[in-house]
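Why do we bother with holo predictions? Because pocket geometry can differ from the apo form. Keep that in mind while you read this record for adenosine-5'-triphosphate.
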Amino acid sequence: MANHEDIFKKVISHAKEYGYIFQSSEIYDGLSAVYDYGQNGAELKKNIREYWWQAMVQLNDNIVGIDAAIFMHPTTWKASGHVDAFNDPLIDNKDSKKRYRADVLVEDHVAKIEAKIDKEVNKAAKRFGDAFDKEQFMSTNPRVVGYQEKANGILKRLGKSLENEDLADVKALIEELEIADPLSGSKNWTDVKQFNLMFGTKLGSTAESALDLYLRPETAQGIFVNFLNVQKTGRMKIPFGIAQTGKAFRNEIVARQFIFRMREFEQMEMQYFIKPGTQKEWYEAWKEKRMKWHLSLGMGEANYRFHDHEKLAHYADAAADIEFKFPFGFKELEGIHSRTDFDLANHEKYSGKKLQYFDPEENKSYVPYVLETSIGLDRMFLAVFSNSLQEEELENNTTRTVLKLPAVLAPTKAAILPLLKRDGLPEVAQKLVDDLKWDFNVAYDEKDAVGRRYRRQDANGTPFCVTVDHQTLEDETVTIRHRDTMEQQRVNMSEVKGIIAKEVAMKEWLKRI
Ligand code: ATP
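The structure, written out:
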């Protein structure tokens, strides 16, 4: 079996080869951690965004969507705490001159301990077979318990030092754990420093009058500053939500791992405004709802887990991540944060404007609490794409590369293929394209032998291939081939639309939530 690095490399090269993701400004050798979506990537990304938007906005009477600007008044970022607290602890290696996030170095060290636990569990599962009880094993096996305690202890200490801004202790922890530079192996570290992640820019035409701005590091603040506008004009009653998707920018210290950590990325965020005191129940409810959304895509329950935060962001009173098993291990995909009244109360303070809700049931005004769900669209893209890319051994000892995208998200729903480029077959196939294109993205392909064309569509993630052959001319039937099973059915041309619709309709997938 290929190792993780090879699998990840394959994901990156496949994404490029099939027009999903290109490096930004590639002809100039690219720009670090900035990527462009190609013809297929743009469609897949749009479909993921739409799947989120329909689940959040269209299917919830009390959630509405907005589209706020990327530029915001600079005081926004004072109020939100980003000017003072949106920092990552960085550390440099004196020998390799490489820069790292100090917390990530420690977390990667913990991940190695966790990998040891997984190894023990897998070994035991093999040994005990059907009788294996994972939970019992994890809580009683001395070696596993020891690893677990060690991992928890390290994370707890890291969380505490970061919370207390005790950067000397973060460095001490790195030294005590004997963490080495992953590239050079050197343990010669500088002190840990804070680094602000916001990108600055200027608005205005003359140097004297130019206003210093930031590119927004999260979309959430565009929602907070519009809270009353939406509440009043939409006559929203608490609890209610405001959703938005859009670009965010962070000057990440270390941005490797392809589109997992980018400097320009897109978020899909929803702020749910609630009565103070109800945050615990909404926190649990949204954790569950969001997990269900993920599971509805059928990418395997075992690939998801919750991770409760020890280290809380400056605005949160509880926070959990939904983690996904990426090719490089379980990592954060989405965050669910109980943000209290931190943001609205601070915007009140800095703007001098009231941001309160009059609750007719309580007959009083208050600053609502907020429960946030925040998912990176690009990270979701990577989760879907990497999980879908598979190499299959076929019966005739060949392999095929197939991109088993959830059909609802696939860029192209069907490819229409004339068996031969003559005898009137292309004309019939083209007619079918013209009929189907009103409902789905469809492609027409007449180049190469039909087997090659099937493989090409498999690798592209197209759920259906429809082949027009000589029999079609006689009885109006075509073969429809299913990407995942490779099964072929002979059906009447008039049935094709219905068969595709059943598999790709967003409604059918959303009903599973
Ligand atoms: P991380 O710990 O990975 O830096 P975070 O906790 O800072 O992420 P949040 O501020 O909670 O992330 O942002 C919400 C979501 O936005 C994340 O769950 C992730 O999916 C996405 N996201 C954050 N930073 C990036 C980035 N640099 N590139 C791509 N997606 C990102």
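The chain has a mean pLDDT of 94.
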